[in-house]
Amino acid sequence: MKKKLIIFTDIGDTIIDEGTEVRNAESVVTHADCIPGARTTMLALHDSGYPIIMVADGLTASFRNMMKEHGLSHIFSAWIISEEVGEDKPSARMFESAMQALSLTEKDKHRIIMVGNNVKRDIRGASRFGIRSVLLDWSSRRSFEPECPDDVPTWRIHTPEELFPLAELIESQLEDEDD
Ligand SMILES: [Mg+2]
Questions:
Q1: Structural domains of the chain, with CATH
Q2: CA of 30 to the centre of ligand 1 (A)
């Protein structure tokens, strides 16, 4: 069954462990490991019918390589990548592009969550765009300290596995709203 909840997701330190990235001379990532539990969680979300849109800063070739390596290319309804959009998160253009890719409008915003590890990009960008956010604090590479109210996530999880039950909870709330 088609779900109401729409998942926008970051990649680096949200699905992929940035600490394992191997880059070529052009700075394209040619190999990287997934964060433990991330691959199975994303596949389970996809198999359950949640639309998943990549909203990521970096090079298209990097994401193509990494998703292919882990058999995750097929789970994304759209790939919104800063190299193509021309701006990094928290730019609204990244989120607008994701909305356009799925023909979503203002009234769909309450159905969208942005999942990411970077408070200044993922969380701030989501807040300013008017959608809810999930901070994954698995990686210790960046500070999670908010610099402004927009940096405070709607939810905070510690492992990728926690995203599945959270998605199910939000989905049930969205279904209740429509009854
Ligand atoms: Mg990231």
A1: 6-178 (3.40.50.1000)
A2: 17
Task: Give the pLDDT means over successive 10-residue stretches in the chain (179 positions).
Answer: 93 98 98 98 98 98 98 98 98 98 97 98 98 97 96 98 98 90
Which residue in the block uniquely carries the two structure tokens 């190299």?
83
As residues whose CB is below 5 A from the ion ligand 1, the structure lists 10, 12-13, 117-118
**Token digits of residue 129:** 């765009």
Distance between CA 127 and CA 169 in Å, rounded? Answer: 20
Determine the residue type at 130.
Answer: G
What is the model's pTM? 0.97
Ligand 1 center to 9 CA (angstroms):
9
Ligand 1 midpoint to CA 52 (Å):
16
